[in-house]
Amino acid sequence: MTETLFHAYMPLILWTSLGLFICRLLPNWLPRLLGRGLYWIGVPLELFTLARQTQVSEFNNGNSLPLLAPIVTLGTLVLGLFVAFLILSVWKNLPSQKLNTETIRRSEFLSPSPCLPFPVSSSQALSPQTQGSFILAAVLGNTGFVGLAIAPFLINSDAMSWAVLYSIIHNVTGPYGLGVVVASYFSHSQKASNRWWMQLREVLTVPSVWAFVFGCLTSGVPLPKVIESGLQDSVSIIIALAFLLTGIRLAQLQGWKSIKLGFVPAIIKACIIPLLVGIATTFLLGLSGDRRLAMVLMSGMPSAFAGLILAEEYNLDRDLIASSIILSTLLLLLMLPVWILLFS
After folding, report:
1. Among 123, 185, 270, 321, which residue is least crowded by beta carbons within 10 Å?
2. In whole angstroms, what is the distance from residue 137 CA to residue 167 CA?
3. Which residues cross the membrane (predicted)?
4. What are phi and psi of 274, to 5 degrees?
């Protein structure tokens, strides 16, 4: 198991560490450009390639598709959003948050004065950008990179189709579906012009979704070997660049102050959601054994780079996303034996 985790995490460790070391040598505009480049070109190219590789026959279990896997995946997203919004609502209504928010609102109309009881800073309250990043980190960050590397060692081949379906459906409907809606809403939430059609427009123009659909439609169309080989190689390059961006943003964290906000979404992602998925699949759907474990494992995988890419594109709280990635990754090491013990 230790060797499996090591190999699964090696790209994350290698490229994230490189981003940490070279951060000081890079111009300030480069991380933003890298994030936008991944959003508009890198990730769509990756999903196009993966969609072409994915054959429906790979998911066949006997004579039928594991239809419960998409149901569990979408149910996990809905359940996770409910938990995240509930905790966020409680957090926003804490007395200290109300006080800080009111002080910031008043300070917008007052010039700086020594009479203020403490320095006013947007970090003292949950800004719309922080709320958007909170939801992305807790529920809508992409998963599957580590999960699909670990799952073959923990579940049998029949249940692997469930894990693969979970990964694909979650990544398309999660970060590049609902995630875009959340990111767009909270990036415009302080503007009077924020309307439902703005989020609809954002979803309809997400390049990753169109790339995935086009990849599925052309999966049976052969391409020249040079192009196919180039597409295969591009996936590993895109993943490396995404982890490099993660390392750069981690290097820019301002100590404990930036990291502490990441604990709550990391706990939701790595602990609360998989526990609820395990209970629901057991008592509501009657799943057991490797199929249940596959759903629990995939729902508890750490947040990856999609949330950070969306934060770069929509100017959300990058610190919260970056810290939650590393914290949820560390939590996986603690929780993985628990899920195997409870749900295998």
Report:
1. 123
2. 16
3. 6-26, 67-91, 134-155, 161-183, 203-223, 235-251, 263-287, 293-311, 320-342
4. -65, -35
Q: What is the pLDDT of residues 255-296, one digit of tens each?
A: 666 678 889 999 999 999 999 999 999 998 888 888 899 999
Instruction: Determine the pLDDT at residue 3.
Output: 67
Give the model's pLDDT for residue 114.
36
Domain of residue 141, residue span:
2-93+127-343
CA distances from 23 to 47, 178, 248 (A): 28, 31, 5
Report pTM: 0.76
Q: Is residue 7 part of a domain?
A: yes
In b/e form, how buried is each residue of 220-244, taking b as 16+ CB within 10 angstroms? eeeeeeeeeeebeebbeebbbbbbb
144 phi-psi bin (left φ>0, alpha ψ -120 to 50, beta other): left
For residue 88, report the phi and psi dihedrals to the nearest 5 degrees.
-65, -40
The count of structural domains within the chain is 1
Name the token pair of 188: 């415009």
All residue ranges of the chain with pLDDT < 50 are 56-64, 99, 103-124, 192
The tokens 């998911």 sit on which residue? 59
Please provide the size of the chain in residues. 344
In a domain, 211, yes or no: yes
Note whether 170 and 144 are within 8 A (CB): yes
